[in-house]
Amino acid sequence: MLKKIVFLFILFISNNVHAEKLLAHAQLESFLENTTGLSATFEQTLQDQYGGVLQQSAGTFLMQRPGKFRWDYTLPYPQNIISNGKKIWMFDSELEQVNVRPYTQMLASSPISLLDKKQRLSVEFNIEPMASDNTLQWVKLLPKTVESDFKEIQVGLQHGKIKTMRFIDNFEQQTQITFEQLKLNPDIDSSTFEFSIPEGADVVGDF
């Protein structure tokens, strides 16, 4: 009798864990499907393959589908990355330099690419469950193409919303982005995603 109770308990726990992992995947798909825009503050940490911190940064983030986004870094120094869906401008105010690239050229290597997906994740990723922690439910995404700049993406969800994303590249470096004050589908003026090149700034790339 005791063995049967233990077996049923283990089965119950295993089923709950499996259901929780499936729930995280479904929550991520639902979040992406129902999101047309985002606004948030963020903290970003870059670690080497040994876990050593290489850089920490922070700022604000705006996104509007399709293809429009804006990362305004305030730490460790001011920097702006802006897309209107056709071009991406990367402006370093200290260097007074603007790097301009076509949107399609830069999208694959940008963390924003995951948030701007129009098709189901399973088209581009193999999806694997991960163990949840005390506050987040995790999903692992493995790109199907070898051309991806990232070998693995981990997404942590809290109350059905993306809270943390980890991007692990082919050199085992990890970029973690954690969002705070996340707002779904805010009203954002489209001019927010345009950029006027400052007078006197050096311009590199396609412009």
UniProtKB/TrEMBL annotation:
Main localization of the protein described in the UniProt heading: periplasm
GO biological process: lipoprotein localization to outer membrane; lipoprotein transport
A GO CC term attached to the entry: outer membrane-bounded periplasmic space
Alphabetical list of InterPro entries matching this protein: LolA/LolB/LppX, OM_lipoprot_carrier_LolA-like, OM_lipoprot_carrier_LolA_Pbac
One Pfam match: LolA
Location in or out of the cell: Periplasm
Protein keywords: Chaperone, Periplasm, Protein transport, Transport
Record bears the keyword Protein transport: yes
Subunit-level organization: Monomer.
Alphabetized HAMAP family for the sequence: LolA
Annotated family: Belongs to the LolA family.
Name of this chain's protein: Outer-membrane lipoprotein carrier protein
Organism expressing this protein natively: hydrothermal vent metagenome
